[in-house]
Amino acid sequence: MRNELGLLNAICIIIGLSFIAFAVLNALVLSPELLTTDNLFVTMVAMVMALMFLVNPLLYLKSEGRLPMPFQKRLRGSEAAQLATAGPPLLDARGRAMPPDVKSMIANMNKAASPEG
Fold first, then answer.
1. Cα separation of 67 and 69, whole Å?
2. Helices marked H in the chain — which ranges?
3. How many CB atoms lie within 10 A of CB 50?
4. DSSP letter (8 states) at residue 91
5. Cβ atoms of residues 90 and 103 within 8 Å
6. pLDDT tens digits for 51-109?
7. Helix, strand or coil for residue 77?
8. CA–centroid distance for 57 within its chain
9. For residues 28 and 39, is the Cβ–Cβ distance under 8 A?
10. Per-domain residue ranges of the chain
């Protein structure tokens, strides 16, 4: 399965780069005037097709954790271990797990309540 995904991602990258090359070729060589309606339309269609083929390998790399996200906060090893051993999930009245933000609010309320009592 891993080989097929690698092959499909490589094919998508090659096709996406070829659409970008076609858009550049169209803008520079094939048409004498750059800002005609037909030339802009063909260039934009080629760029949208390139986007459609290149987004799949990028999403695959992001899901595998191999694509660095520039403005995303990363957890250190100790912080990740604390989150993993934070205890059982907090459940509501119907037995469903509560979201992590609600769990953190309740933990903050318990911290604030413990010095008073």
1. 6
2. 2-25, 37-64, 77-84, 100-116
3. 19
4. B
5. yes
6. 999 999 999 998 888 888 787 776 666 655 565 556 666 777 888 888 878 878 887 88
7. helix
8. 11
9. no
10. 2-64, 86-116
